[in-house]
Amino acid sequence: MPVSDFLEVLSNYDIAGAYWVNLKLTFFAAIFAFVLGTVLAMMRISPVPSLQLAGAGYVNLVRNTPLTIVMASGILVLWPQLGVQFADDFTTNFFWLAVLALTIYHASFVTESIRSGVNTVPVGQAEAARAIGLSFLPAARLVILPQAFRGAIAPLGNTLIALIKNSTVAAAASNNEVAVLMAEMIENDANYVVPIFLTIAAGFVIIVVPVGLLTTYLSRRLAVSR
After folding, report:
1. Pick from 34, 60, 43: nearest CA to 113
2. Is residue 138 part of a domain?
3. Where located (predicted)?
4. In CATH, what number is assigned to the domain containing residue 41?
5. Which end of the chain is more exposed for a tag (fewer CB within 10 A), N or C?
């Protein structure tokens, strides 16, 4: 199989455009999942039992539900049954439904990552905050969370890497991302199944490896001193 022939096959497809869809899904879902995960982490460490129960219930339920089910629920329930619609355009609406599903699913992992970061904060820090009269929310915002985020860099990085790879599940929401393109490529050019698969896999390696290296560096650089 001449390399030139395979390169010609690749030129017939917008591979960069497909990866761009995955990156956009990852970008927006990562931001929203971080915000939601932080709120849920606050609930899990709060002194209010009902909030602890609600946070733990969300994490245990969503984390043990397959992402495909979460994604399909958004497409088959939220939109047609409940009328949840983010845009009149079909493609844009399905994009944001996929972002919502990715956010809901990965927020549970963000929650546990931040909670693990809270465990790296010395107990004396929280006790000192209470000693100077800070209530739970100010103490968490000013003392606990800033240090917890530093201690949670590594697990948050792992969650981000998982999100990058899981963005391919958006194929279930009719998003033209790289998994859909790969299926189309294999269907149209079945003689190049292995090279196509390796090319797509290499693209994810190129994206994921720098993220892993960066989070490893930052976790060591910003580790909480104990």
Report:
1. 34
2. yes
3. Cell membrane
4. 1.10.3720.10
5. C
